[in-house]
Design brief:
The protein has about 325 residues and is an alpha/beta fold. It contains 11 helices and 14 strands. A 6-stranded mixed β-sheet has the order 6-7-8-3-9-10, with helices on both faces. The chain has a 4-stranded antiparallel β-sheet with strand order 2-1-4-5. A 4-stranded antiparallel β-sheet has the order 12-13-11-14. The chain is elongated. About 35% of the residues are buried. The site of adenosine-5'-triphosphate has 12 residues, from strand 2 and helix 1.
Amino acid sequence: MPSLEAVNLTKNYGKFVALSNLSLKIEGSKCVGFLGPNGAGKTTTLKLFTDMIRPSQGKALINGISVHENKRLALEHCGSLIESPEIYPSFTPKEALSMIAEIRGVPHDVREKRIEEAIAEVKMEDWKDKKVGKFSKGMKQRINIASSLLSEPDILLLDEPTTGLDPRGMSEVRDIVKSLKKRNRLIFMSSHLLPEVSDVCDEVAMIDHGKLLVYDTLSNVTTKFSGDGNSSIVEIGLARALDDSFPIGSISSITGVVSVDKMDSRNLRIKFSGGLEKQETLLSDLAAMKIGMISFRASGSALEDTYLNLIKDTL
Ligand SMILES: Nc1ncnc2c1ncn2[C@@H]1O[C@H](COP(=O)(O)OP(=O)(O)OP(=O)(O)O)[C@@H](O)[C@H]1O
Ligand SMILES: [Mg+2]
């Protein structure tokens, strides 16, 4: 199973902390959006993962192998698109990819096949012998993505693959990224656009000022951050672990309660409508049930603030 792991990963430039103590483990085949405003530390993180820069502290592991100690082995099945140079305009995609395959040491006997497959994956078959100079930015970016596929990676690191493209180019590239997910790959894609991440990704890691704010599934983050207009969420803690006798049904039937979810054996997340007034009656209703509730806290609002602070810089 493909995996990416950062352990206390830190990058300082003099006194400036570009990435602070990032610990994150991503495993399995899925697409994870790495969301944060300009200067958050996204590119820094991706460069650390590909050993383009060295950490000040901590380490980055790909499939369990330290990229700083064993770069070649760690990056063998990892493709990346980070600050790639423009393709020379008089090259065709096939010529450009042949040259890149040569530089990267793709074995001769599989080169032709890999190039054809990579071109097919980015749906550029009809353009493979045309000069790149005539391509739109979106098409050029698809060729860049193809170049990251030449090593048949199971992990793909993409740094803002749609930035700088027009709306059509963006949507083309997003469709390609979505289709790349199908092949049991782990894709880690940075972006500063929340709608893009919600469209393309299954999970999201948010970063700002070099610090990880949250890493969770998209649906959990969306519930936490946005609610749905007029519903709110509280999290309650229990003195004892939940068992079969616990009256989840009775909680669900309290007026205004939308859903009750188990976070773990001692914590429940309750979604309800009716605002702060309802929050007060919910607290007293739950207390009256004598279910061993030892904590009651509003969820979402703190995170929503974090999120709004996070994106306001990019607006
Ligand atoms: N070589 C460097 N020397 C000094 N500071 C740097 C260097 N590289 C990056 N930084 C700083 O580190 C911070 C994080 O930069 P990074 O490029 O990782 O941000 P980012 O999240 O990719 O932003 P963007 O959305 O603009 O691409 C920024 O404040 C940047 O100015
Ligand atoms: Mg960047």
